[in-house]
Amino acid sequence: MSQALTHEMVFLKMPVVHMEDRQRQSTGICLRLGLGAIEVFLPNPPSGRFSWLEFILPDTGYRVKVLGECANVIQNENGYAVLFKYKHIFPRDRTALSALFTATHVA
After folding, report:
1. What's this model's pTM, rounded to 2 decimal places?
2. Structural domains of the chain, count
3. How high is the mean pLDDT of the chain?
């Protein structure tokens, strides 16, 4: 796992919708969130390299959607911890995510 990718991540639990395509969707739990990556606990591992991920930022109610590239998968007895690095994030979503981290570092 890349140290640079996970360096600026914070522990945060929230639901995440994992979409591989229209027929294959599941709900996972965010374990860590960063400006360049998200770690999600999923019941099943991703079947492909890329997945859409959607989550609502805490305290703001803002919905973020990112295209994530699977960077690491760790299996345990309950499911899979999957690290996704962002391949695409819409500009407004990046701004909202950055604002969350700015507010977290200021507080």
Report:
1. 0.89
2. 1
3. 90
